[in-house]
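Example 9 (inverse folding). The structure is encoded as follows.
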């Protein structure tokens, strides 16, 4: 491969008339013909919506708080990178709920206990158009997380306190996808196939302006073999980790607080689209804090 710089100024955009005219002189590779103009023009549309509430209830043992929330995100975008086009269309639905009790003091002890639940579904469509190659990926990611938690503070004196807390998260994630891949190869190479088609940036193979196999297989168009491959795949992950916190607090004056703490953190693993790295491991954190508030 020999790199040939485009004879265009550095300020020339991808979609200018001059850039498009130059693009259609470049070879498309295996189809045995020149590239088409690039499209569509970049666009981005996002919609966000959600509702949440806070409900509190006073009892003899303390205050119960319930925090439900739901949120939806819709994203549609088209863009170009490295001279090729791609589309993304995804919708995310999230529901979370926390039920918490802030208990009344029992002797020298203040305490909090609760449950947290989270459910997320991401439905996405990704389209990649490399002219000679096309890919359509319909994917669904699901996450369910459940975590009881609690903490207690022992008031040694009016000025000195010790706090300990823990959280027990359980995370389950699933991934499923249907992939359709297309490939165009001129059957007479090195002789050209000027009538060969090229892939267009459309949201589904059925929207292509030429015949595309309805199942894995090959058809001949303009002297080029148009082939389809693909299938389904799925994976799942389950992670759990107990995290905790220990802290000391001391009121060294009426308006001055000294504190020191140690706490652990955790974020569950997940899925990746990188070949050979389809999943990644959880992340863990140990945090040490010392400070004053005045």
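The amino acid assigned to each position is listed next.
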């Amino acid at each position: 491969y020999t790199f040939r710089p485009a004879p265009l100024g550095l300020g020339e955009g991808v979609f200018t008339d001059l850039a498009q005219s130059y693009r259609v002189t470049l070879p498309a590779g295996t189809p045995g013909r020149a590239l088409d103009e690039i499209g569509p023009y970049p666009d981005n549309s996002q919609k966000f919506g959600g509702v949440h509430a806070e409900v509190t209830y006073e009892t003899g043992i303390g205050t119960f708080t319930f925090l439900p929330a739901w949120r939806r995100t819709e994203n549609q975008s088209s863009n170009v990178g490295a001279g090729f086009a791609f589309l993304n269309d995804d919708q995310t639905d999230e529901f979370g709920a926390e039920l918490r009790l802030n208990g009344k003091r029992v002797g020298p002890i203040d305490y909090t206990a609760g449950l947290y639940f989270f459910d997320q579904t991401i439905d996405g469509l990704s389209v990649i158009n490399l002219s000679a190659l096309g890919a359509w990926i319909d994917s669904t990611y699901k996450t369910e997380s459940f975590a009881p938690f609690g903490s207690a503070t022992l008031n040694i004196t009016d000025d000195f306190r010790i706090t300990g807390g823990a959280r027990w998260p359980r995370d389950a994630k699933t991934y499923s996808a249907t992939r359709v891949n297309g490939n165009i190869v001129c059957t007479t190479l090195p002789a050209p196939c000027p009538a060969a088609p090229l892939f267009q940036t459309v949201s589904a193979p059925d929207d292509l302006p030429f015949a595309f196999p309805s199942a894995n297989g090959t058809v001949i168009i303009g002297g080029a073999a148009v082939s389809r491959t693909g299938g389904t795949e799925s994976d799942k992950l389950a992670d759990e980790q107990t995290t905790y916190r220990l802290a000391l607090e001391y009121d060294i004056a009426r308006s001055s607080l000294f504190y020191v703490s140690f706490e652990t953190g955790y974020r569950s693993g997940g899925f990746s689209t990188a070949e050979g790295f389809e999943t990644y491991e959880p992340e863990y954190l140990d945090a040490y804090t010392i400070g004053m508030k005045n």
